[in-house]
Amino acid sequence: MPRFSFRRPAIVLALAAALPMVGAVTAHAADQQFPFPGSCQEIHNLFPFARDGDYILFNNGNVFTVFCFDMNGTPREYINLAVAGPGANFSQYTAGGASPGTNVRTQFAKLRIDPATLKVDIGDLTFARSFGSLRHAGGTTVTSMPYGVAMSCISPGDAGGIGNIDLRGTPFRVNNAFLVGGFAATGTATASPANQVVNLSGGGFCGWIAPAPAVFNPFNPSPGDFHLQLSCARQFFFPSREFCIHIG
User: Fold this and answer.
1) Cβ-count burial of 190 within 10 angstroms (0-12 exposed, 13-18 middle, 19+ buried)?
2) 1 inside domain
3) For 18-77, what is each residue's pLDDT tens digit?
4) Do residues 118 and 41 both lie within one domain?
5) Rounded to an integer, what distance in angstroms lies between the CA atom of residue 158 and that of residue 200?
6) What does the pLDDT look like over 87-99, one tens digit per residue?
7) Domain range for residue 216?
8) How many domains does the chain have?
9) Per-residue pLDDT tens digits for 195-236
């Protein structure tokens, strides 16, 4: 990643000017010698009346924007996904074989991120929609999938499950390995040159592909699975509200 020699107060004020929605917050923080907030909770602590919306964070040398959610309750950080539609940012458990029913597809509009590590909580479905229902190997009813997972239970070696990660229009890229798991499992993860798009296929009897470290039977997720590692992309979307740079 390119490194910048700007001092923190200077970069704070420059980015504050680029983000009018949070300019009053960040400029005030810099003028008063407050530390640049590293989380939405810290923003709430400094400014209890701050509302849900886009904010600048500084954490572990990275300056980036997030969408702060539930600022009046338990503040959490999310990435705004720019690419939407049925074929983007989804995970699917493809029905068939030992798992009858309809394809279970979960589509994501925002991703929960840990601002300290830039890891995505693949199990957070706060800003996701799920469709379909199937019976996993004749047992558990499956109605949702975590982010970055493709799964099926059609036959050994059959990668019938599909998925897509598309971070174009965001300042992040994928910096993570993907692993296959399950019985007679197979799968591929094909990344774009900039590692902002990853197309997934996975399956078996039953099998899947998921961000390492692999989780057993990755379906019907719950929040707390911070498994997908991101990093700042080289592009710097300025004066867009979406950016991530590293300050050395």
Assistant:
1) exposed
2) no
3) 443 443 344 334 334 446 799 999 999 999 999 999 999 998 888 899 999 999 999 999
4) no
5) 13
6) 999 999 999 999 9
7) 90-227
8) 2
9) 999 999 999 999 999 999 878 899 999 999 999 999 988 555
User: Residue 215: its pLDDT value, please?
Assistant: 80
Contact 37, 115 (CB under 8 A): no
Which residue type does 11 have? I
Q: Which of 134, 121, 193 has the alpha carbon at shortest distance from 161?
A: 134
Answer whether residue 3 is part of any domain.
no
Residues 6+ apart with CB under 8 A from 121: 111, 112, 113, 114, 223, 224, 225, 226
- Looking at residue 61, its pLDDT comes to 84
Are 94 and 209 within one domain?
Answer: yes
- Closest alpha carbon to 144 in 98, 182, 92, 101: 92
**Same-domain status, 95 and 76:** no
CA 154 to each of CA 17, 92, 142, 208: distance values in angstroms, whole numbers, following the listed order: 54, 13, 15, 11
Indicate whether 143 belongs to any domain: yes
The residue that leads in pLDDT, 73 or 239, is 73
Question: d(Cα 162, Cα 141) in Å, to the nearest integer?
Answer: 19
Phi-psi region of 132 (alpha: psi -120 to 50; beta: other; left: phi over 0): left
DSSP string covering 170-191, please?
Answer: SSEEE---EEEEETT-EEEEEE
pLDDT digits (tens, 9 = 90+) for 167-200: 999 989 999 999 999 999 999 999 999 999 999 9
